[in-house]
Specification:
The structure holds two protein chains of two kinds.
Chain A lengths: L6 H40 L2 H14 L3 H16 L3 H31 L1 H16 L2 H12 L3 H25 L3 H9 L4 H30 L1 H5 L6 H10 L3 H24 L12
Helix pairs in contact in A: 1-4, 1-6, 2-3, 3-12, 4-5, 4-7, 4-9, 4-11, 5-7, 6-7, 7-9, 9-12, 11-12
Chain B lengths: L2 E12 L3 H9 L4 H8 L2 E12 L3 E5 L6 H8 L7 E6 L2 E2 L5 H10 L1 E4 L11 H5 L1 H5 L4 H14 L15 H14 L4 E5 L7 H18 L2 E6 L2 H7 L2 E6 L2 E6 L1 H6 L4 H8 L9 H4 L6 E3 L4 H11 L3 E5 L5 E6 H9 L16 E2 L4 H10 L4 E4 L5 E5 L1 H11 L5 H9 L2
Parallel strand pairs in B: 3-8, 3-9, 6-7, 7-8, 11-12, 14-15
Antiparallel strand pairs in B: 1-2, 1-4, 4-5, 9-10, 12-13, 15-16
Helix pairs in contact in B: 1-2, 7-8, 14-15
Classes of the chains: A mainly alpha, B alpha/beta.
Chain lengths: 281, 409
């Protein structure tokens, strides 16, 4: 018989060791994030609801269609009417901040993994782990480090939502045609100039797709995030589940869907000035 | 004139055991065996040549002959495995990365087969790319971009995106971009191969015109021998990574170094190689403007011709005069030839290619007079001289074409 590997005990030891080692530091980080989150939430809540609707409607209009503009106004008014406005704002802040952190960390990692084969060899399995490990498994250690509230929710959301930002950034850079990279190199570009003047501009469509996916995955975490005290629309869904109130669950659910559609369409189309045609050999 | 580019024994071996492969190569083992013994591919095999300042040097070979690899060794887009490349007293091969970037920015530019224009930048921004890399101020970049665009005949296109341009125009932008940082050396990698034949012809002509003005050192890669012969002051023929022959177009046609070159040359359209001065015969007899009609007529009668070409005291061509006109002048008791006696004819330049002349010759009643830059008559082309040229160069494939076009007269 094989002796049983004490994997669980090892992981427990590592988490404990990490807690002792970086717990206080993470506590400080958590406090900073908490201040930012609370500020954003309180700030947005203080703004009259119709101004928020107006701003999002303008964004929807800028991203293209009047249909989307109309849908945004009707959808958000419905959320306000259902009395879910404050929860929606909490969820919006959670999603936007998580996506922001994911992109800020994910873009450089994506670029690095495109440039260095070694880096990709380390990052790729981590990405697989982040995407496939059931989120409940890391919710617990996240709770140990950050306590309950919006901060651990953001942390857990970032773990789940960051991989597409990394993968699609890497893909976009690798898809830049070799002859363009060669041409730029022939004119004496430094690695940095090559990256900023050729590779990133040409990878923008792919990077945008990554950002869009990150936002969508962040939204899909709101219900799970509410289990560790994130509040927002996810909490409404949870309480509806607990009381078997199908109607209330539907109201919260449809609000999440409305928010998802608005964020998806706006993030897909915003800032797309002209389609870039890349010729292939 | 001193050399602009000196290439000494440049070798490029692709694979992991390059040291071992290099040893084998130097001891004379052939490519195929090296591939079997150490899994390495010999891209360029000990190539050596010198290119003069302002020379248009063509490297020609079929695909896989290593010509593009050799070209990329010149600016180290591909690192040579061994050998030296001396440009402006600097050894490119041993340059530091910093110096190499400077070298690429200032001294050498490249034009690509697939144009390789950046699709997210306007035409002007593409042209100015090399300057932007050197942090040249924006106003200066714009000025240079406009200047270079008008040089290649694209003024006013600066604000367009490359996707709105035709293939020929894209390559003009590629050329303008390469000229923008005013390099001494232009590397052109199959620059016209992706263009359709008419546009290619036009671009070749334009490159030659530009070269007359700019006198860059140009290294031009092509797989098309006609293109090589038309453009190249000298041509290096490559096969299997080796340079098989280097010479002027005439050398290569007349004395192919081996069967491989001969086989290449056999397919050449010689009307594109030969120029008027290659097939002209001495212009005899010549009549002088100062001759009296009586003397002129006697000269014609002695040679049995019905008309003769007239030159001035500096031997510049004035036109042609017929025996009938001379007889008239004599009847009118005139002692000199007047302008009305002399019929104006269209001469051709000594450097004009035969393919442009064939129809003129076949259509003309007289032999074609050939003049040089000063207008001095240097020879005559007869219908028969063209056919002789075809026959002696073994260009049988073209004889029917000439026969057909003369039947159409």
């Amino acid at each position: 018989m094989l002796p049983r590997l004490p994997l669980a005990a090892w992981v427990n030891d590592i988490v404990h060791w990490l807690y002792v080692l970086i717990g206080p530091f993470l506590g400080d980080v958590a406090n900073v994030i908490r201040v930012v989150v609370d500020g954003a939430t309180n700030g947005l809540s203080a703004v009259p609801w119709w101004i928020v609707v107006l701003v999002l409607a303008v964004l929807a209009y800028l991203s293209g269609k009047w249909k989307l503009t109309l849908g945004t106004i009707i959808g958000l008014t419905l959320i306000f009417d259902l009395g879910l406005w404050d929860d929606m704002i909490t969820t919006l802040v959670l999603v936007i901040l998580s996506a922001l952190v994911s992109v800020v960390i994910g873009l450089p990692l994506g670029i690095w993994s495109a440039k260095s084969r070694k880096a990709y060899r380390v990052i790729a399995p981590l990405l697989d782990l982040m995407q496939t490990m059931p989120s409940f498994v890391y919710l617990v250690p996240v709770l140990i480090f950050f306590d309950i509230g919006l901060v651990p929710a953001i942390f857990a959301t970032v773990i789940f939502a960051m991989p597409p930002a990394i993968r699609l950034t890497r893909l976009g850079i690798l898809q830049v045609p070799g002859n363009l990279v060669e041409a730029a190199t022939a004119f004496g570009t430094t690695d940095w100039q090559l990256l900023w003047k050729v590779q990133i501009p040409l990878a923008i469509p792919s990077i945008k797709a990554g950002v869009n996916q990150t936002i969508m995955l962040s939204l899909s975490m709101v219900v799970i995030a509410s289990m560790i005290g994130a509040g927002g629309l996810g909490a409404d869904v949870m309480s509806a589940l607990e009381t078997v109130n199908v109607g209330q669950g539907f109201e919260a659910g449809i609000s999440i869907v409305i928010l998802a559609i608005i964020l998806d369409r706006v993030s897909q189309k915003l800032g797309r000035d002209k389609p870039i045609m890349v010729e292939s050999d | 004139m001193d050399s602009s580019i000196e290439v000494h024994q440049v070798t490029k071996i692709f694979g992991s055991k390059t040291e071992q492969a290099l040893q084998l190569l130097r001891s004379g083992v052939d490519k195929g065996e090296i591939r079997e013994r150490c899994g390495c591919n010999v891209g360029v095999n000990q190539a050596s040549f010198n290119i003069q300042h302002g020379e248009l040097f063509v490297i020609m070979g079929l695909s896989g002959s290593g010509k593009s690899t050799l070209l990329r060794c010149l600016n180290r887009l591909i690192e040579p495995t061994s050998g030296n490349i001396i440009i402006n007293n600097q050894n490119i091969v041993t340059m530091s990365k910093q110096d190499l970037l400077k070298f690429r920015q200032k001294q050498v530019s490249m034009v690509f087969q697939q144009f390789a224009l950046l699709p997210h930048r306007t035409v002007a921004e593409n042209v100015a790319f090399g300057l932007e890399i050197q942090n040249v101020p924006k106003s200066e970049r714009q000025r240079v971009a406009e200047e270079k665009l008008s040089l290649v005949g694209l003024e006013g296109w600066g604000n367009q995106y490359p996707e709105n341009l035709s293939g020929g125009m894209k390559q003009r932008v590629g050329l303008a971009r390469a000229l923008a940082n005013d390099p001494a050396i232009l590397l052109m990698d199959e620059a016209f191969s992706a263009l359709d034949p008419l546009i290619r012809d036009e671009m070749q002509r334009e490159l030659l015109n530009l070269q007359d003005k700019l006198h860059k050192t140009v290294v031009f890669i092509t797989h098309d021998l006609n293109e090589a012969l038309r453009l190249g002051a000298r041509i290096a023929l490559m096969k299997d990574g080796e340079i098989v022959q280097i010479g002027t177009p005439d050398d290569i046609i007349a004395n192919p170094a081996n069967d491989y070159v001969a086989k290449f040359v056999r397919g050449v359209d010689i009307t594109k190689v030969l120029v008027a001065s290659d097939v002209m015969r001495p212009a005899l007899p010549l009549l002088s403007q100062n001759d009296s009609p009586r003397i002129a007529l006697r000269v014609l009668n002695e040679t049995g011709l019905s008309s003769g070409f007239v030159v001035d005291s500096a031997k510049r061509l004035l036109g042609i005069v017929s025996a009938d006109r001379l007889a008239n002048a004599i009847a009118q008791q005139r002692e000199v030839l007047t302008e009305s006696d002399i019929e104006v004819v269209t001469p051709v330049h000594a450097n004009a290619h035969l393919d442009h002349l064939v129809n003129m010759i076949l259509r003309s009643k007289y032999p074609l007079p050939v003049i040089d830059d000063e207008g001095v008559l240097c020879g005559l082309i007869f219908k028969s001289s063209i056919l002789e040229a075809f026959a002696s160069q073994g260009g049988d494939a073209y004889a029917p074409a000439v026969a057909a076009s003369s039947m159409g007269q």
